[in-house]
Amino acid sequence: MNKQRSSIPMFLMAAAAASSFALAAGGLPEVGHATPFVPNPSKTAALSLAQKAEKLQSDLSGYGYDVMKGNFHLFTIEDCKYAIESIGNCLGNNPTAPYIIPTLPQWQDEFVDAHMKNMLGPVPDHEGWTYRLGEQEAIIILAKLPPPGRYFGMQSYVFSRDVSVNLTDSIYENLDDVFMKSIIFMSSPNPSRQLLFSSIGDSINNVVIERQSGNAFDQQRFFIITANTTLAQELSDALLNAGVTDRQQIFIERISPGLARLGHTSASDDFMMLIRYALPTDEVAGDQWRKELPMTVLRVRNKNPSPQYQVYLPPVREPRIANSELDLERSLDDVVAAVKDKWGQPSAPDSNFYSLLEKVDLVGDHCMRRPMNCLGDTGDADYQISQTVDLNSDVVLAAVGTLGTATGNAVYTSLSVNQIPELVGVANLTDVDLAGSTSAFSASVTNTEKIYLQYFARDCSNLPHCLEVSEQLVPKGDKLKIIQRNYIVPGSSRGPDPTKLVNPRLIILKRQ
């Protein structure tokens, strides 16, 4: 869809073009126009974040915009009970890096789906975890970003859609992982709608923020989520008028009507936003930021919008890159053999993890077209997942894989234990825990500094590099999957290309 304003003064078009060029990495829209706001940041530069939010809300209301304020929530493992009750699983949560999710008030003319109301926990009567989005509205976030850490990212998702499973889809027909098939082709809490949980484009992460504004962590930054380029420009000007000192600090997440079904009816898509923050350099400071969540979220629309405006085209995602790990496959095989030999079990069964990107095409816009559940995907990571296994008292699991932080393919690597069938992330290890775990084999195996060995058992007595999985974490009778995540290739803003990685292996050993 392309609705363009007419009679735009040339000097305004030129100014907007210059701004668009300066913010080509994801900032301002490509079309300029007059707005009611005359930015003069010098008059308001000393305002605090809360004062900027208050002034912005007052200015917008005074100029004929509807404005409503929402809230932010930390979704922790303790909240999984709500997701399991409403959705049937906990969305593959990361227990050590909990999601931050805004809830938004609904417009009076917006369809409110009662099935979604409290699906991740109780919220005020006028708010919801999901929301519909019209072409004439936007979400604004004013944020003090967290203290330095390995990763920060913000991303919007189409959560569910009024559509049915395509029974002839190639993934539906051929996927041999029974549990994954049941998860990615499932209905939403509203049984008449399909769960999509699909990203609408690349995220705005700390690398993107640094490239555009010079710094990311511990800074004030501002975000506009909209399908409407005209509104994006107006709200950018309003932010400057409210005290934002530089357009480079404003980021636009572009929603395309060519990808998402916009509107406020029961047939429209509903949306959800996730914020991820992982591995703060100072854990105490990071936990304090999570406790305070110094951010404001506003929902905005113009009461008297122009019928002529321009919307965003579907996104072009940034290509993934990676340093090839394929020459490490022999070394990984040698570690697997050495582990089996050490245990005196040369015939112990083992299996490869598989890449969700390669096997089930876990890319948001692809998932929307199929349709299927994209599991809250992000282009910032590669996901590799094990088979579903039992962990009985006489079983020890050994995961052997390449360490992305050592191969130059990740700023951080995590290995999580996920309870099945609830898909609850119950425990998590990082590259700090995994580094050096194969040094005992260095005399007979090459490249051990780039390979990890991690055990999982009910009882880790006398086992080095072992994570004890108690029955409180994974009850007896439930199963588990191990998931490896590699976040952001250094020098890139996205996760690694899975075709150049070596998938981990999972060995099933018997306790003697």
What's the layout of helices and strands?
Blueprint: H1 10-22, H2 49-62, E1 65-69, E2 71-75, H3 80-86, E3 99-105, E4 127-128, E5 137-144, E6 149-161, H4 170-174, H5 178-184, E7 194-199, E8 204-205, H6 206-213, E9 220-226, H7 229-241, E10 250-254, E11 270-280, H8 283-292, E12 295-302, H9 329-342, E13 350-352, E14 354-355, H10 356-360, H11 364-369, E15 381-385, E16 395-402, H12 404-407, E17 412-420, E18 424-430, H13 431-434, E19 451-457, E20 466-468, E21 479-487, E22 505-510
Parallel strand pairs: 9-10, 19-20
Antiparallel strand pairs: 1-12, 2-3, 3-4, 5-9, 5-12, 6-7, 6-8, 6-11, 13-22, 14-15, 15-21, 16-19, 16-22, 17-18, 17-21
Précis, in short:
The chain is α+β, with helices and mostly antiparallel strands and 512 residues long. It has helices at residues 10-22, 49-62, 80-86, 170-174, 178-184, 206-213, 229-241, 283-292, 329-342, 356-360, 364-369, 404-407, 431-434; strands spanning 65-69, 71-75, 99-105, 127-128, 137-144, 149-161, 194-199, 204-205, 220-226, 250-254, 270-280, 295-302, 350-352, 354-355, 381-385, 395-402, 412-420, 424-430, 451-457, 466-468, 479-487, 505-510. The protein has a five-stranded mixed sheet, with helices on one face. It has a five-stranded mixed sheet with strand order 13-22-16-19-20. Strands 14-15-21-17-18 form a five-stranded antiparallel sheet.
Describe this structure in words.
The protein is an alpha+beta fold and 512 residues long. It folds into 2 domains: 293 residues, no CATH class; 185 residues, no CATH class. The chain contains 13 helices and 22 strands.
